[in-house]
Design goal:
This protein is mainly alpha-helical. It has helices at 2-17, 21-27, 34-39, 47-57, 61-65, 72-82, 87-100.
Length: 103
């Protein structure tokens, strides 16, 4: 069950990032089939490699396992950007969010 989640999550995050299995394997310093072997269920990453994969995607291990967040990197980018806004812009942003959510 957990191994399937890890495989699917890596695949989903990889597609969101817009990289191939081949490129991701090389970016992580492995042979071209490394990510394919994970995706196909032949192997799972070691803990060291898991942390490297999280770093590759720009997410924390907690965000990796957060099934409620579809795109954790995008979410973190939004949070980082919002934290730089002044009060007036924060209020405007909140009104826009509420409008989008139809509150």
């Amino acid at each position: 069950m957990y191994s399937e989640f890890v495989r699917e999550r890596i695949s989903r995050l990889r597609v969101q990032k817009g990289v191939s299995e081949y490129k991701m394997s090389y970016d992580l310093g492995h042979s071209r089939g490394y990510i394919n072997n994970i995706s196909s269920g032949k192997t799972l990453p070691s803990m060291t490699e898991f942390f490297a994969i999280c770093e590759y995607f720009g997410i924390t291990p907690i965000e990796f396992f957060d099934t409620k967040t579809e795109n954790p990197k995008l979410r973190q980018d939004v949070i980082d950007s919002i934290s730089q806004l002044n009060s007036e812009d924060l209020e405007l942003t909140l009104r826009n969010i509420n409008r989008l959510l139809k509150k």
